[in-house]
Specification:
Elements (H helix, E strand, L loop, with lengths): L5 H16 L9 E6 L2 E4 L15 E4 L4 E2 L8 H10 L5 E5 L2 H8 L21 E2 L7 H10 L5 E4 L3 E6 L2 H24 L7 H10 L11
Parallel strand pairs: 6-7
Antiparallel strand pairs: 1-2, 1-5, 2-3, 3-4, 5-8, 7-8
Helix pairs in contact: 2-4, 3-5
Length: 217
């Protein structure tokens, strides 16, 4: 059937399990999606990642039609809206990772306390306002927080990271969780000394070639 992409389905399962191995998700929390030609693949609702098989990964087209034997994650609305509105994004990783969620439950974003905050694509990592999971309001809140950004926290919920590839979105989620942990520890001990906007702009320029070999530029 045309919606099947075994390679992408296996990749989603691999990174879903890896998120659990790194304790960025537990049990059935969080979800992953990957863009396809006329829609996207997404993890199913309520299934333990350790038990996933390729045929459990759900395909949804941009008209909200669902293909497969499983139901999609209850968070499919924001995956759909991001895929529709952000053509630069091909993969989405949503986690309930501990430190990102700790900050999100305080409705705090991550300011420019460290130059690596620039991995988000700007001077900070925003926190989207709270709304009930699976609602159109939550989708709008997340899209707003992702404006000119690759990642955001979600109030009283967790984190959303994106990328051109699933590995890129996964790596970003790992980095954001590390930044959240560092910032949380700073808040416990006092206030962070923030970098200036000018200093962050310099870092953002350097990040255009950061981590890339000459052959890849």
């Amino acid at each position: 059937m045309k919606y099947k992409n075994i390679q992408s389905q296996k990749e989603i399962i691999f990174f879903s399990k890896k998120l659990c191995d790194l304790k960025l998700n537990t049990g059935t929390s969080g979800n992953i999606s990957v863009r396809q030609k006329d829609g996207f693949l997404i993890t199913p609702t309520g299934m333990d990642y350790q038990n996933l098989r390729p045929q459990d990964i759900v395909f949804m087209n941009m008209k909200k039609s669902i293909f497969g034997k499983r139901d999609p994650s209850s968070e499919w609305p924001f995956h759909l809206e991001i895929m529709k509105k952000r053509t630069d994004i091909n993969a989405i990783v949503h986690t309930h990772s501990t430190y990102a969620t700790v900050l999100a439950c305080q409705r705090k974003g991550i300011p420019r306390f460290h130059y690596m905050v620039a991995v988000a694509g700007g001077n900070d990592i925003r926190c989207a306002p709270y709304s009930t999971f699976g609602t159109s309001r939550l989708s709008k809140n997340i899209l707003s927080a992702l404006r000119n950004r690759k990642t955001c926290l979600v109030a009283n919920h967790g984190m959303v990271s994106t990328g051109k590839t699933l590995k890129e979105a996964f790596d970003l989620a790992v980095e954001v969780e590390n930044l959240a942990k560092q910032y949380w520890k700073i808040l416990l001990s006092g206030r962070a000394k923030l970098l200036s906007v000018s200093q962050m702009q310099t870092v953002l320029k350097k990040f255009k070639s950061y981590g890339k070999q000459k052959i890849d530029r």
